[in-house]
Amino acid sequence: MSWGLWERFGVEQEYMIVRCDTLDVMPKADVILRDVAGLVESEIAHGVVGLSNELVSHVVELKAQEPLTSLAGWSDIIAREITAINATLAGVGARLLPTAVHPWMDPARETVLWPYESHDIYQAYDRIFNCKGHGWANLQSTHLNLSFTGDEEFGRLHAAVRAVLPVIPALSASSPFLDGRFSGYHDARLETYRHNQIKIPIIAGSVIPEQAFSFAEYERVIFNPVREAIKPHDPEGLLSHHFLNSRGAIARFDRGAIEIRIIDLQECPAADLAILQTVVALLKRLCDERWVSMGELQSLDTARLAEIFLSVVKHGEDARIEDAKFLRAFGLSATPISASELWKRVWPSLKDDVELGLVPVMEKIIERGSLSSRLLRKLGHEPKPKALHTTFQSLADCLAENRLWDERLS
To answer: Is the whole model's pTM more than 0.90, yes or no?
Structure first.
C-alpha cells in the first residue's frame, strides 16, 4: 500500500549501549534482542515499537513498527521503551547513552560486528570499506521517513528535502567530540560519515542528493552509477543499491518514502521529536511553495547546497550563509545571515505544526543552540577525561528521564 505526502511517517533512533560505571561501549545488543523463546533476533517487536540491530553489537535501533499517521506522542512512547531497555540492561551493568557519537570510543579496538542475522552482508561491508572506524562503528542518528505517491509528489518532496538538508545540522548537531577532544566540527558524525565510503565516492556523492525529481531520473543519476560502481567489489551481489545509497536523504521507491539520514541523535526523545516536527513543518511550507515556486526550488544547485551543508557541519548554527538564491527559498532577503538566524526567522511560521508540549523544547534549542554548541560551552575543546565522563553521565540521565540537557545546571 502507498501513502501520499504527509500521510505517513517513519522514525528510527539509534542508541549506544555502554557500561554504567565507565560508559565504555558494551557489545550487548543481544541482551535486548531476544524473542519470547529467548532466541537472539536482529529484529523484534515490543508493541508499536520495533527493536533491531544493524552492523555493530553495541547499538540498538528503536523504530515505529508500522508507519505513523502523526509524529505527535512518539517521544513519550520511545521514552517508555528506553526505560524498559535500561531496566533490562541494568542486569549486565549497562545502560543507553545518547548523542550521535561516543566521545572516546576507539573503533579499531572496540568494534564488534553483529554476529547473527545478516552477518554476511556486514562482513561484505567490512571487507570493502573497513567498518572499524568512526564513520561506521561510532555513529548514532535519527532517521525520518516521509511518504509519497508517484513522481509528482516525489519531485516536490525531494526538492524540499534537498533545500532543507544543509541547515538541519544547525539544530541537530550533537557530536563535537571524537577521541576525547574537539574534532574541529560541530557535527563530527556527518564529517566522518561522508568519508566512510570514499573508496567508492558515488555511493555518498556530496551527501546532498542530485537534482533528480522522478523515478527515471533517480535511476539514471543515482541508482545506475551506484550499481555499476559496486560490481567489482561485490561479485556475490550481496549489497542492494537501496542500502548502498548513502546520501543525506535517500529515495526508497520500493516503499514510497524519502528517508532523511543526517539528523544527529539528541539527548532525549523530546528533543529528537521537536526537531523532526520542526523539519516536517518547514518541508510542508516548501512543498506548498510558500516562498518560491517549485521550479525555483528544484533549480537549487547541488554543489552550492553542499557548500552550505559542509559549512554548517563544521560551524554549526554559527555558519554564515551568503547564497541569495538559497535564502530566498525560505522567504529571506539576500543579506548574509547565520544558520541560527535562518531558523529563528522561519520558526514563527512553523511552531503551530509542532506538538504543543514540544514547542518549549524547540524554542530552547533555537535560543541556546545545538547540543554540540552547549557541550562545547561546557567542556571546551580539550575536555578533561573526568569532566567528559561526568557530562556524558548527565546526558545518559537526561535520556533516562526524557529531559533537555542544560549545560548551566550540569
So the answer is: yes
